[in-house]
Write a sequence for this structure.
């Protein structure tokens, strides 16, 4: 199990376009990329453009998103199960 901060860019990533403070836009573990001396994605415009192209593509609509939208719509309509709404129950 990896530590949750494993995706955080290291200090050497400063100035890179793929550095989004809390995660690296290309690599799962940026620290491992610097072991060999220099990260392959550091200041690499081709990888940055690839990331931006992927980010522009519309996301798939999941069944969870559809279910949540239906629930939001149903919450706005009254539910009386075919009966008239009683004005006062305790009269």
């Amino acid at each position: 199990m990896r530590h949750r901060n494993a995706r955080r860019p290291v200090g050497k990533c400063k100035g890179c376009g793929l550095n989004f403070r809390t995660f690296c836009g290309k690599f799962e573990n940026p620290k491992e990329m610097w072991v060999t001396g220099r990260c392959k994605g550091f200041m690499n415009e081709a990888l940055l453009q690839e990331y931006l192209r992927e980010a522009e593509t519309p996301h798939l609509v999941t069944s969870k998103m559809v279910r949540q939208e239906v629930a939001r719509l149903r919450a706005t309509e009254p539910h009386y199960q075919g009966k008239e709404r009683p004005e006062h129950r305790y009269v």
The CA atoms of residues 84 and 90 lie 16 Å apart. The chain has three helices and no strands. Residues 63-75 form the longest helix (13 residues).
